[in-house]
Amino acid sequence: MTKAKLRERIAALEAENADLRSQSQAFNPDMLSIARDIRSLTNHDLATRTKMSVGRVSKIVNGIVVPTPHEIARFGEALHFPVAYFHQPGQRSSANRWMD
Questions:
Q1: CATH number of the domain at 3-98, out of 3.40.50.300, 1.10.260.40, 3.30.470.20, 3.20.20.70?
Q2: Tens digit of pLDDT per residue, the chain (100 long)?
Q3: Distance separating alpha carbons of residues 50 and 4, to the nearest angstrom
Q4: Which end of the chain is less enclosed by CB atoms within 10 A, N or C?
């Protein structure tokens, strides 16, 4: 690989990484926890519904790990909440407007 191509590849990866960081900063694990509580589910229940490990779900719920966009979509499907719900500031009073 030439130096120019290598620089292009590095720039592309840095741009992709910056995009992922901006998306992940928008994710609010508190809203995931609220949605899970509204549906009366445990981390184990949520893991089963999303086909993720309990450890992975626990780390996401506790804000230790940032979920991928695909994982956020899986949470939305499993909890019957739109993906946008998980990207808002966490306030329990705002949760009620998203309930079925």
A1: 1.10.260.40
A2: 788 887 888 777 777 666 555 554 578 999 999 999 999 999 999 999 999 999 999 999 998 999 999 999 999 999 999 998 998 876 554 455 555 4
A3: 42
A4: C
Q: Are 31 and 90 in contact (CB under 8 A)?
A: yes
pTM of this prediction exceeds 0.85: no
Domain boundaries, the chain: 3-98
Q: Six-digit token pair at 2? A: 């030439």
Q: Which two tokens stand for residue 19?
A: 């995009």
Helices and strands, number each (H, E), in the chain: 6, 0
**Encoding tokens for residue 44?**
């184990």
- Cβ-proximal residues to 53 (8 Å cutoff; 6+ apart), any chain: 47
What are the two backbone dihedrals, phi and then psi, of residue 11, each rounded to the nearest 5 degrees? -60, -40
